[in-house]
Amino acid sequence: MRNLTPATITKAFAEYAKKAPDKRTRTLMVSLAGHLHKFVRDNKVTQAEWLAGIDALTRATKFTDDKRNEYILFSDLLGVSSLVDMVNALKGGTPSSVLGPFHIEGAPEIPNGGDLWKGQVGEPLVVSGRIVDHKGKPAKGTVLALWQNSGNGLYAQQDSQQSPTNYHARLKVADDGTFCYSTVRPISYTVPDDGPAGDMLRALGRHAWRPAHLHMIIHAPGRKPLITEFFPKDDKYLDRDAVFGVRGPLVLPFKKAKDRKKLPAKLAARETLPMPVWTATLDLKLPAG
């Protein structure tokens, strides 16, 4: 197509793509190109500015490997990962949240009541709760995928001193929907900011902190997995999460228990945990659908 202008280039792109074999792909790409074209027109983007953006993406490749993906980090820090989660979230149950980069498949199984803390650095935490379906009935057969950072703020993938699956586990809930386990109280941490995504944060005057959280994927029979995370109510970064992952119902109080007898009876480390111990109660409900 000849005689293109800033006003007609978006229509030309759509025309070029009209024979796309997949309609959804065409819809997404035409829309993406249209938004990019509008961004350039509205801001009169210079060649130097556009090349700076391309350079950031080029440098992102150098920071991406099997343990870190700078493109996912960009998506998280721009709020895109969180927005994708929100526009696809089912209603009527425990809210979903972002997956994050540190989930691993094939984590070891622990029994209901198992211990992840094992006396490691940090303050121990007892997590207990119950999971029900959208009708309030126990979600029998549900398996929880659990992961979090350690007491030094690092995930296992970031710390060669930890075992590869430290603080990663799978736990099957009881037939009545109850579950419990002992772990370490998670702490706030910064996302990696030594690459181009970190440069973006500094250019915007932003920090790289995430509030402390517990990650979880709820695998219930016959349902789509529910990816979520839970945050202690006293964390100072709740309203400034670098990746926009906090949802109001996912914020809960972490309390100190002084009486060992009030800890769940099935807790394997019940008699050995130092008292008082932090506790968190998660009452989970699967959304309909």
Question: Please, could you describe this protein's structure?
Answer:
The strands form 3 sheets. A 6-stranded mixed sheet has the order 1-4-3-8-9-10, with no helix packed on it. Strands 5-2-12-11 form a 4-stranded mixed sheet, with no helix packed on it. It has 2 domains: 45 residues, no CATH class; 206 residues, Aromatic compound dioxygenase (Protocatechuate 3,4-Dioxygenase, subunit A). The chain has 289 residues and is an alpha/beta fold. It is 24% helix and 20% strand. The mean pLDDT is 96. β8 and β9 form a beta hairpin. α1 packs antiparallel against α2.
SSE order, as H and E? Answer: HHHHHEEEEEEHEEEEEE
Question: What is the global morphology?
Answer: elongated
**Topology, number of strands:** 12
User: In what order do the strands lie side by side in the largest sheet?
Assistant: 1-4-3-8-9-10
- Say which CATH homologous superfamily of the largest domain is assigned: Aromatic compound dioxygenase
Largest sheet: 6 strands, mixed
User: At the first level of CATH, what is the class of the largest domain?
Assistant: Mainly Beta
Radius of gyration: 23 Å
Structural domains: how many? 2
Distance between the termini: 47 Å
Strand content: 15-25%
CATH architecture classification of the largest domain: Sandwich
Low-confidence stretches at least 5 residues in length (pLDDT < 50)? none
CATH topology of the largest domain: Protocatechuate 3,4-Dioxygenase, subunit A
Average pLDDT confidence is 96
Which class of secondary structure composition applies to the elements? alpha/beta
Helix content: 10-25%
Q: Please count the helical segments.
A: 6
